[in-house]
Amino acid sequence: MPGSTEIELGAIFRALADEHRRRVMAELAADKDDGERTCNSFNLPISKQTQTHHFRKLRDAGLICEIDYGNRKGIRLRRSEINERFPGLLDALAADADSR
Predict the structure, then answer these.
(1) How far is residue 27's CA from residue 94's CA, in Å, rounded to a whole number?
(2) What is the mean pLDDT of the chain?
(3) CA gap 53, 97 in Å, rounded
(4) What is the DSSP string of the chain?
(5) pTM of the shown model
(6) From the CB of residue 34, how many other CB atoms can be counted at a distance below 10 Å?
């Protein structure tokens, strides 16, 4: 996971190019409480293995952090880091969630 100053716009765009990852990010951005979620809480119509791949892409782009509990992982949006580096990005994603 890159540090906040190492988050690159190209990596974010590549991560958000997939509709499932955009959906996850839109849900996270719309939730102002920034609570920790599990991978299964997103109700994605894809296999567990594919979910793992998508969450890894989001983590590698610096958009989320994962908390490993051994038998499950928690997902948390890196809101402050993203807002600092790319102001307005999360608002645009949240607006996308509202339009669905």
Answers:
(1) 7
(2) 91
(3) 22
(4) ---GGG--HHHHHHHHTSHHHHHHHHHHHH-TT---EEGGGG--SS-HHHHHHHHHHHHHTTSEEEEE-SS-EEEEE-HHHHHHHSTTHHHHHHHHHHT-
(5) 0.91
(6) 13
